[in-house]
Amino acid sequence: MVEAKALVKRFGSFDAVKGIDVDVRRGEAFGFLGPNGAGKSSTMRMVACVSPRSEGDLTVLGMDPDRDGPRIRARLGVVPQQDNLDTELTVRQNLQIYGRYFGLSRAHVRRKADELMEFAQLTDRADDEVESLSGGMKRRLTIARSLVNDPDLLLLDEPTTGLDPQARHLLWDRLFRLKSLGVTLIVTTHYMDEAEQLCDRLVVMDGGRIVAEGSPSQLIARYSTREVLELRFPPGEQDGVVTTVSDLGDRVEALPDRVLVYTGDGERALERVHGRGVRPLSSLVRRSTLEDVFLRLTGRTLVD
Ligand SMILES: Nc1ncnc2c1ncn2[C@@H]1O[C@H](COP(=O)(O)OP(=O)(O)OP(=O)(O)O)[C@@H](O)[C@H]1O
């Protein structure tokens, strides 16, 4: 669906995307995971045919964005980072007007709007102005709107940024549904849980480069351990114990507010810590996540 080779996006003398290779297959949910400024949006905008590439090869739906931009865009759905709905119009009007942009007939657009409101669970808000919707509802409407032309490929730039957990889960549920209907999804996110929930495969980006690629479970198996022991200490005491904890044989990362011990068995690691007379304020054993993968690869956390 999308193939990029040595793809570069340059702004003046700054390379925001520094030669990436990507291959997105039909029917999969593919993710770009990385912190702010990693180059995810710049990549998405090239795929969406709204920003020309600076160097490299790019094929979207088998076509060249430089030559076939309008034909590609007609088969894409795009959910931008910021909702750009018409807030003074109703939910239904937003869908119908957008449908008319694609040259769809009035009758078709009317039917489609009903179907999409059902999909986005907004039927009971059909005649309300967008202004009055919650953030999660607006996001669902933006997604519904992007589906008005029955796209083959849906591009979602940070789909759940700024939403509360319940709204995020409802949105993920809708995206799963789309995937099960065979729509190919490309998602950018800086939330590791979003990437883990949604993506069959993903690339981890940092500073305009791809630093790893695989399924969430492959990445975790390759770059992390089964479990992580998180230790928190009273203010000022952490530095004094890091060397002792590091001596116990597991890989240790000291973050400003906690110490992470990468291990196959968190409870046993905690016993070893206690055995050295180290008494943390609190301890937590959890499974590894993509956040741990990112930390391993870059030495930094995804979200500050
Ligand atoms: N139009 C532009 N002109 C100059 N620099 C830009 C432009 N757009 C993006 N950049 C820079 O390119 C880099 C990558 O930005 P990009 O928006 O692609 O990152 P991102 O991973 O999507 O992050 P975010 O989540 O903040 O959008 C950043 O350093 C950004 O400041």
TrEMBL record:
Keyword Transport: yes
Chief site of localization: membrane
Record keywords, A-Z: Antibiotic resistance, ATP-binding, Nucleotide-binding, Transport
InterPro entries: AAA+_ATPase, ABC_transporter-like_ATP-bd, ABC_transporter-like_CS, ABC_transporter_ATP-binding, P-loop_NTPase
Ranges where the ABC transporter domain occurs: 2-232
SMART domains (UniProt xref): AAA
Entry superkingdom: Bacteria
Topological relation to the membrane, as annotated: Peripheral membrane protein
Example GO molecular function: ATP binding
Statement: the UniProt record of this protein carries the keyword ATP-binding: yes
One family name in Pfam for this protein: ABC_tran
Family: Belongs to the ABC transporter superfamily.
Protein name: ABC transporter ATP-binding protein
